[in-house]
Amino acid sequence: MMKMADMKRKASALSEAVDMPEKGYYPYGIQLSLSDDDIKKLVLDFDDLDIGSDVMIVAKAKVKRLESSESAKSATLQITEMCVHQKEEKENKKPSMKDYLDKSLRK
C-alpha cells in the first residue's frame, strides 16, 4: 500500500510563494472544486459536509505534462476518475487508505 504524503508546506517555502494567487500552507493547484453535477456524480450528501471536516479521496489520474530543469521538476496530473468517502467506518479502528481503496473498487 502506498504511504500518504502530507502536502503542507514548510515555513521556508511559504515566503517563496508570493507569485501564487492564494498564499497558504498547501501548494497551489491541489485544491479540488466540485460543481453541483460533480457532487451528484460522486453521490455526496452535501448536508453532511462541514467546512474543516476531513474526507478521503481515491482518484485515478493521467500524467499530462512533465518538465525538468537542473533546479526543479514538475508534473501535471489530470484526475479522470475519483470517489469521495465522507465518513469514517463505524468501527473502533480508523480506516486505512487500503480500506478506502478496497471499498472504492467494489462499487
Outline of the structure:
By secondary structure, this protein is an alpha+beta fold. Helices cover 19% and strands 24% of the residues. Strands 1-2 form a two-stranded antiparallel sheet.
Word description of this protein:
The chain has helices at about 10-15, 35-40, 95-105; strands at about 55-70, 75-85. By secondary structure, the protein is an alpha+beta fold. It has one domain. The chain has a two-stranded antiparallel sheet. Strand 1 (about 55-70) and strand 2 form a beta hairpin. The longest helix has 10 residues, at about 95-105. The protein is globular, with a radius of gyration of 17 Å. It starts with 10 loop residues before the first helix and ends with a helix. The mean pLDDT is about 80.
Instruction: List the helices and strands in order.
Output: HHEEH
Number of helices: 3
Mean pLDDT across all residues, rounded? 79
Any idea how many domains?
A: 1
Rg estimate, integer Å: 17 Å
Major sheet description: 2 strands, antiparallel
Give the N-to-C terminal Cα separation. Answer: 20 Å
Which spans of ≥5 residues are poorly predicted at pLDDT below 50? none
Query: What is the 3D shape?
Result: globular
| Strand arrangement, major sheet | 1-2
Q: Which structural class do the helices and strands define? A: alpha+beta
Strand content: 15-25%
Helix content range of the residues, please? 10-25%
How many beta-strand runs? Answer: 2
Q: What are the main properties of this structure?
A:
two-stranded antiparallel ribbon, 3 helices, alpha+beta, single chain
How is this fold's topology laid out?
Layout: H1 11-14, H2 36-41, E1 56-68, E2 73-85, H3 97-106
